[in-house]
Amino acid sequence: MDYTGYIDTHAHILFEDFNLQEVIERAKEHGVSKILIICITFKEAYQAIALKKEHPEYFDVACGIHPSDIADFKEEDYLELEEIIKQEEVCAVGEIGLDYHWHKDNKEEQRKAFLKQIELANKYNKPVLIHTRDAIEETFMILEKHPVNRKGIMHCYSSSWEMAQRFIKLGFYISLGGPVTFKNAVEPKRVASNVPLDRLFVETDSPFLAPTPFRGKRNEPMYVRYTYEAIAQLKGIDVDVLIEACQKNYQTLFQKEE
After folding, report:
1. C-alpha span between 242 and 198 (Å, rounded)
2. Which among 63, 157, 167, 168 could disulfide-bond with 39, CB atoms 3.0 to 4.6 Å apart, if both were Cys?
3. What angle do CA 236, 237, 241 make, to 5 degrees?
4. What average pLDDT is seen over the chain?
5. Would you say residue 95 lies in a domain?
6. Is pTM beyond 0.90 here?
7. Residue 177 burial (CB count, 10 A)
8. What domain count does the chain have?
9. Residue 1: inside a domain, yes or no?
10. Domain presence at residue 102
């Protein structure tokens, strides 16, 4: 793999209100050289796989059942999910995990779905992309007790630096999004300042969490540069150093193993 620009490590660009071609053109104009498309429906996954086949160097694909969608999935849906995950165009399982902020009444179902998808990731030797909200300690305990062979990314990380260190020791990467640019985001800035370069990723989580100065607007991959610039400033390094580090991390995590 050879990357020369910004990588957006987490983008939901197949949401129906996106004009995909315009989003891609704007991303390229702003120096984005790779987008990892996150798919949380089967429809999105099939679209993303087709895009990957058309533009193999520009797109990568991840698919998983988001904890917010567990209630809509039946047992047989995991068979279709497995068929998608085993495709060579799919490089990761995600986003998966626990969300006890919006969903407090189905914690056991969330845990079971999380574990099933960890098993699929291990079966097909792929990393995972972890969503966790108001469940950081339990997320850690599950990942510690049920190791992911290829590890993965703590997506849009929003917890403490102390917890980040624990995930890093497990072998996970920390990915930061737009909130690190927010004026009063004390802990995200602390995390950004301290995460080692060889454990760091940058993302948009489009269409959510647009960085300053676009906060409150619809996010998209072209804005990832603002988050890169903010993190580089916090670390006291040139943005090109951060870009190169993220490129190396991406290659390390997602390179195909023989």
Report:
1. 10
2. 63
3. 160
4. 95
5. yes
6. yes
7. 28
8. 1
9. no
10. yes
